[in-house]
TrEMBL record:
Its EC number is 2.5.1.58. Coiled coil: none annotated. This is Protein farnesyltransferase subunit beta. Signal peptide: none annotated. GO terms for biological process: prenylation. It holds the Pfam family Prenyltrans. One of its GO terms (cellular component) is protein farnesyltransferase complex. It comes from the Eukaryota. Binds 1 zinc ion per subunit. The lineage of its organism: Eukaryota, Fungi, Dikarya, Ascomycota, Saccharomycotina. It comes from Candida theae. The keyword Metal-binding applies.
């Protein structure tokens, strides 16, 4: 097993050697050189350029990079003596990621390509393959609009045209059932669902559609209260009538109500107890008690605690905080990104589902928890696609979902956060703010609890 930086570098070369007899790459070609000086939309950060490298030269480059204390791949510290489908998948994934790192030696950001991809997806007819997302219209609107607004633009204003904003608002409004009395559906002629209602409300906040939010908020509150269920562990919410309940549905209900300023004592009663009961022996949170910890459910659970509590110690004292932190940190993989569960592959969507937990942890314990530079490299050099959008990992296709959560994860590792004292004993979710403005970032600061730019959190109805 690799025991030093140099051993890690040699291990990396040997790992690559399993696929090719000669490790000799021609990356950093003329096209890369031209791109690095062509336009303001592609910003470069200084990094190693690998060109025409022999094995010995690559060893030297990696050794120099490690000696300089720069970020490099954290290679697996344990090699198992047997192979299984799980270890084979991990080996293949790591090989593909390493090759992609060598093919993309610089951390560039293709802003114009991302804007074009998002705007085209918002206005063009979708391919037939998207019919599986027919129950996810509000989700698609949220993923695309939020992605657009997270990307930092030169003039600081949204580039979404009025026509696109109106198109998005009409789509969301077409999914509202009986002015909110039946919730918001995922598509035409479908039932109201907490998840689609959550995505729809976020989208209306992003388009600053206050009239529609005011019109539906009281009815949505009544509908959500009708979904509340008491269990022996506490209180949760059904996703829809006769549906399931879990930490995800609970988070959706809380976000909707806190943004619409309808989070009454009756609504939140018993909810923290339910959330706490979902923490597992590993330290993360499951969807329901006594099941496996999962990145998405853990995000929903911990973010819910940020909504429900007003002081850091309230959260730290309620859960096994040390175990929780260890589980989250263990999700950062040797490729630089995050996985969602123990012994699972890296996936860029967890750049947010796990990556957003890190600033929340950091503001509670006033420290830095994870390797931001490693995550940033994975997002920009592995998940980013030059023609626009982001993908899960090499070999996967670009999609709306991974594009949004890659950008939100990038934001969480590009910005530092702190808790402010607003003098009103308000929710921690609204007290977490960007520590300072960083001019060299590609993104605006995202509120890690809500997954939208911090500037839009005050556009909700929480003060109305």
């Amino acid at each position: 097993m690799p025991s030093s930086k140099l051993d890690q570098a040699e291990y990396l070369i040997n790992l690559l050697g399993r696929k090719r007899n000669t490790v000799e790459r021609e990356v950093g070609d003329d096209l890369d050189h031209k791109n690095s000086h062509s336009s303001n939309s592609d910003t470069d950060f200084e990094d190693v350029v690998y060109t025409h490298l022999t094995r010995d030269e690559m060893m030297k480059q990696l050794h120099n990079k490690a000696s300089a204390g720069e970020w490099t791949l954290s290679l697996p510290s344990i090699e198992l003596g047997y192979q299984s489908s799980t270890t084979e998948q991990q080996d293949e994934c790591l090989d593909d990621v390493v090759e992609t790192y060598l093919e993309n030696p610089k951390t560039r950001f293709y802003k114009e390509a991302h804007f074009n991809y998002i705007e085209k997806c918002l206005t063009a007819k979708l391919p037939s393959g998207y019919k599986s997302l027919d129950a996810n219209h509000p989700w698609m609107m949220y993923w695309l609009v939020n992605s657009h607004l997270v990307i930092k633009d030169n003039d600081g204003e949204s580039r979404l045209s009025k026509d696109i904003v109106n198109l998005v608002n009409r789509k969301i409004e077409s999914c509202i059932i009986d002015e909110g009395r039946g919730g918001i559906a995922g598509g035409a002629n479908q039932m109201g669902h907490l998840a689609s209602t959550y995505a729809a409300v976020l989208t209306l906040v992003l388009t600053r559609n206050t009239p529609t939010l005011l019109k539906i908020r009281t009815n949505l509150y009544t509908w959500i209260m009708g979904l509340k269920r008491k269990t022996k562990q506490g209180s949760s919410f059904l996703m829809h009538g006769l549906g399931e309940y879990d930490t995800r549905s609970t988070y959706c209900a809380l976000v909707i109500c806190v943004l619409l300023n309808t989070a009454t004592p009756e609504l939140v009663e018993g909810v923290a107890d339910w959330i706490i009961s979902c923490q597992t022996y590993e330290g993360g949170f499951a969807g329901v008690p006594n099941t496996e910890a999962h990145g998405g459910y853990t995000f929903c659970a911990f973010s819910s605690l940020f909504i429900l509590n007003t002081a850091p110690q309230d959260i730290i004292g309620q859960i096994n905080f040390d175990k929780f932190v260890r589980w989250c940190v263990a999700r950062q993989t040797c490729e630089g990104g995050f996985s969602g569960r123990t012994n699972k592959l890296v996936d860029v969507c967890y750049s947010f589902w796990i990556g957003a937990l890190m600033p929340m942890i950091d503001v509670l314990q006033k420290s830095h928890t994870f390797n931001k530079e490693a995550l940033r490299n994975y997002i920009l050099r592995i998940a980013q696609v030059k023609s626009g959008g982001f993908r899960d990992k090499p070999g996967k296709s670009v999609d709306f979902y991974h594009t949004n959560y890659a950008l939100c994860g990038l934001s969480c590792c590009e910005h530092d956060y702190r808790l402010i004292d607003d003098g009103e004993n308000s929710s921690l979710a609204f007290r977490i703010v960007e520590n300072s403005t960083n001019e060299t970032t590609f993104t605006y600061a995202v509120n890690p609890v809500f997954g939208i730019p911090t500037s839009f959190c005050n556009s909700s109805l929480r003060n109305v």
